[in-house]
Design a protein that fits this description.
This protein is α/β, with parallel strands linked by helices. It has helices spanning 20-28, 47-51, 61-67, 79-82, 101-110, 131-149, 178-189, 201-211, 222-229, 252-255, 306-327, 329-335, 337-340, 353-359, 366-371, and strands spanning 2-5, 32-36, 56-58, 70-72, 90-93, 113-116, 170-174, 193-198, 215-219, 234-237, 263-266, 287-290, 293-296, 343-346, 349-350.
Length: 373
């Protein structure tokens, strides 16, 4: 198979779809890999590093799309990239379609086969391709929140870990999944007073056993959220409904209850955000203020640490990339129901139920779509 790796063009996105080690595996399996020049520059990998493992370097994204059968990226295709997709392409990347009507429309019109990292599952029902970036984003959420809490950045001027004789910051984490767990690890390590809310008693019991008395676990409902955000210095939103738009758990009304200079970090922003006042921001302009509350809603948080993120992502995505290349996309998905869960759009059909429902498309089950001539 001919595999293409374009340079990411989203604002301040420096990750790359395939690192050289992954390219080496693919070329060892007999596949051709075309990499846009300087695609790996953001993680410290030169064109020569890619050539050394068998890749061919092309001058621009257009050339990559024209030569490749499968496009491997990190972030969702931007408008100029969607325009280059054809029915002959398989796109393998993060998509986050539910809150993104223009992207979904573009992918449907392209006729391409579009596989979303974030909806591929495993035998435990987990999301193995989302997990590495959720780990990174969860840890970054506390770093970003601590930065936002500094007075110069609009915050209240509270040091997250306090000092002897002065209490630490109160950090409230909504959602006890991969993001929440990693955020709690970082917040505890920095000495914060941590409250974590979730609706799964199984998750709360697990987190209580892991963190002991260092994290206060609370069953999540409207009352609990209101009680704990009122005096929070930092609130991290890490709620996920796979493939669907995130629920709005903190409303505009809630902001009036919070202290001026408190901070919201919305890690669910890729899925529309779990705070009502959230809107996507960039690493270039990461924050804005609503009713005295600082909002950090960067839609590609792991892009801030692209080297760590790219290698972590490739560890998870490479086995599926090999299957898609070795067997062909259709057979690979027929052989693996977990990879099949990743199929969101195919030949103009929306094949993921939550995306179809949220955006008003007819839903076509993935198996039925693959069998359509």
């Amino acid at each position: 198979m001919r595999i293409g790796v374009p340079k990411e063009i989203k604002n301040n996105e420096f990750r790359v779809g395939l690192v050289p080690a992954s390219v080496r595996e693919l070329t060892h399996h007999g596949h051709e890999v075309f990499v846009e020049t300087k695609a790996g520059g953001g993680i410290g990998m030169s064109d020569d590093d890619y050539v050394a493992v068998g890749a061919k370097i092309l001058d621009d994204a257009k050339s990559v799309f024209e030569r490749a059968e499968m496009i491997v990226k990190v972030k969702e295709p931007q408008a100029v990239e969607r325009a280059m997709l054809t029915p002959d392409h398989t796109l393998y990347t993060y998509l986050h379609l539910a809150p993104d009507a223009p992207q979904t429309e573009g992918l449907v019109k392209s006729g391409a086969t579009c596989i979303a990292y974030e909806t591929v599952t495993d035998k435990n029902g987990s999301l193995p391709l989302l997990a590495p970036m959720s780990e990174v984003a969860g840890r970054l959420s506390i770093q970003a929140g601590a930065w936002c809490m500094e007075k110069a950045h609009g915050g209240s001027g509270v040091l997250i870990g306090g000092v002897p004789g002065v209490e630490p910051a109160k950090v409230v984490i909504i959602g006890g999944g991969t993001v929440g767990f990693n955020a709690a690890q970082m917040a505890v390590g920095m000495g914060a007073n941590v409250v974590l809310l979730d609706r799964s008693l199984k998750v709360l019991r697990f987190l209580d056993s892991i963190f002991d008395t260092r994290v206060q676990t609370v069953y999540s409902n409207r009352d609990a959220i209101e009680r704990h955000i009122v005096d929070a210095d930092l609130v991290v939103g890490g709620v996920l409904i796979p493939g669907a738009a995130a629920p709005k758990l903190v409303t505009r009304e809630h902001l009036s209850m919070m202290r001026e200079g408190s901070v919201l970090v919305d890690v669910a922003i890729d899925q529309g955000g779990c705070f009502e006042t959230s809107k996507p921001t960039t690493h270039e302009n990461p924050t804005y203020v609503v009713d005295g509350v600082v909002h950090y809603c960067v839609a590609n948080m792991p892009g801030a640490v692209p080297r760590t993120s790219a290698f972590a992502l490739n560890n998870a995505t490479l086995p599926f990339a090999l299957a898609l290349a070795d067997k062909g996309p259709k057979q690979a998905m027929l052989d693996d129901p977990h990879l099949l869960e990743g199929l969101n759009v195919h030949r103009g059909m929306v094949t993921y139920d939550d995306v179809a429902r949220d955006l008003g498309y007819d839903y076509v089950p993935a198996l039925k779509a693959l069998e359509t001539p």
